[in-house]
Design goal:
By secondary structure, the protein is α/β, with parallel strands linked by helices. It is built from 13 helices and 14 strands.
């Protein structure tokens, strides 16, 4: 094993859309540490969460596979214990592995103990399947089945724990061993009003300027949501700043690949919609910053490539000089960072195999398959073409151009590319119930896999 392999610190929030970062042009939300990181990082401004919902996105991250391959295409189902996954691969070449925060791929109760064989190779462990009670947040440490409680706002305490982990490596004689560390924050996912008071006081709902695609009838409610959401974002930004400072103080920053991202976005009233699973920009677009000073320096730059969640694992493996196993379906973007071609073929596939939760059919939810290119969004549902947007000229997606006669050639090209990508995956685009039956998942009366807290 090469002692020059980089450390990896991978930090991801739950439901933080890229549109709500200062570096991406939002002047309302205060994210100074994130903006500073962006100025030193490789920025993928077109990064997407192809399947924009919690458990599927996390399983795609860990395995580098698409959701219809690993089977986690809805929330609260179990990622197979024998999956070929991130921590196992890094551990096999000598990395220490650590996970702190929200897990959400166990699928056997959101508050239940997760045994070691279901942790996908992570050894240092302070995690819980899922909670959104950020000020009364429990977790399990190591192999103890006794639940513990984070003291106060969990993201702050989780960050402090990671800082302690980093500081303790020298004391424990681990300074020559590379590590893979994932920190998974629960905010800024709803409930939006629960950030620490100091941060909530920074944002007055009455002064929030809404995106133009938020309809007037929900404007007041959306301002309340967004003010609280921004409070969470700024709290997390301070956590990020503290963590980055610790890496500098411990002499770890230069040879650490530091990633900041999110599992998916949040509609927050745009298009009259809430939460995720939707194909619109606010749901699918995520921040993705990668900093590795030793190799790429500290001068930030943008890479116009369509990075999707399954692409993250092979890219990190390649950057760390670790072979990419055949089970991985995502594409390696390491050469793209160095100036090479975008391996996506010009588009990322966006999809929802089975609508559930806040995206039920009775509320407008639908199965869809679509593409996000550098310039356009195109989607089909089971009845045919559904959405077509020119994102350059219509960034808020106010004008659906689908089936316009003057755009027939463009739509046909996008449709052909979509079918090509589906064929490459072996995705027959069946009704959602077909996949539910294949994987033998139970559904409750709302069409959601039932779960217990």
């Amino acid at each position: 094993m090469s002692l020059n392999r980089p450390n990896i610190v991978y930090v991801f929030a739950d439901q933080w859309r890229v549109q709500d970062t200062g570096y991406a042009g939002n002047s309302q939300v205060k994210t100074p540490h994130l903006d500073s990181l962006a100025a030193q990082s490789i920025n993928f401004p077109h990064a997407v969460a192809g399947i924009p919902v919690c458990c599927p996105a996390r399983a795609c991250l860990l395995t580098g596979q698409h959701a219809l391959t690993h089977g986690v295409f809805v929330n609260d189902v179990h990622l197979a214990d024998d999956a070929v996954s991130m921590a196992k691969l890094f551990k096999a070449v000598g990395y220490d592995t650590a996970y702190v925060g929200k897990w959400h791929v166990d699928g056997r109760g959101r508050s239940n103990y997760i045994p070691p064989e279901s942790r996908q190779g992570f050894d240092y462990w302070k995690a819980l399947e899922c909670t959104h009670d950020y000020n009364n947040s429990r977790y399990y440490a190591g192999d103890s089945e006794q639940p513990l409680k984070w003291d106060g706002y969990d993201a702050i305490e989780q960050t402090r724990d990671v800082q302690s982990y980093l500081r303790g490596r020298k004391d424990e004689g681990q300074s020559d061993t590379p590590f893979l560390l994932l920190l998974s924050w629960g905010p800024p996912h709803a409930p939006y009003e629960t950030a620490p008071e100091t941060y909530r006081e920074m944002y007055d709902p009455d002064t929030i300027q809404l995106r133009p695609n938020v309809p007037p009838e929900i404007a007041e409610e959306a301002r309340d949501w967004i003010a609280g959401y921004y409070a969470h974002c700024t709290a997390l930004d301070d956590c990020l700043g503290s963590l980055l400072q610790t890496l500098e103080e411990e002499g770890l920053a230069e040879n650490t690949i530091f990633v900041f991202t999110s599992d998916h976005g949040d509609m927050l009233g745009s298009q009259g919609e809430v939460k995720k699973q939707r194909p619109w920009e606010e749901s699918i677009r995520v921040p993705f910053l990668l900093r590795w000073p030793q190799r790429f320096g500290r001068e930030g730059r943008a890479v116009d490539a369509l990075l999707d969640t399954p692409d993250i694992l092979p890219t990190l493996l390649s950057l760390s000089d670790i072979p990419i196993p055949e089970t991985v379906e995502g594409r390696d973007f390491s050469a793209t960072i160095e100036g090479g071609q975008d391996p996506s073929g010009g588009a990322a596939l966006i999809y929802c195999p089975h609508p559930f939760g806040q995206f039920l059919r009775v509320d407008g939810g639908r199965e869809y398959r679509g593409l996000r290119t550098l310039n356009h969004t195109y989607a089909r549902d089971l009845d045919g073409p559904w959405l077509l947007y020119d994102n350059d000229n219509d960034p808020f997606q106010l004008n659906n151009l689908v089936n316009r006669a003057e755009l027939q050639a463009l739509q046909a090209d996008l449709d052909a590319l979509l079918h090509k990508k589906l064929a490459e995956r072996g995705d027959e685009f069946l009704p959602g119930e077909s996949y539910i039956q294949k994987w033998n998942y139970p559904l409750d009366r709302t069409g959601t896999v039932p779960f217990s807290w």
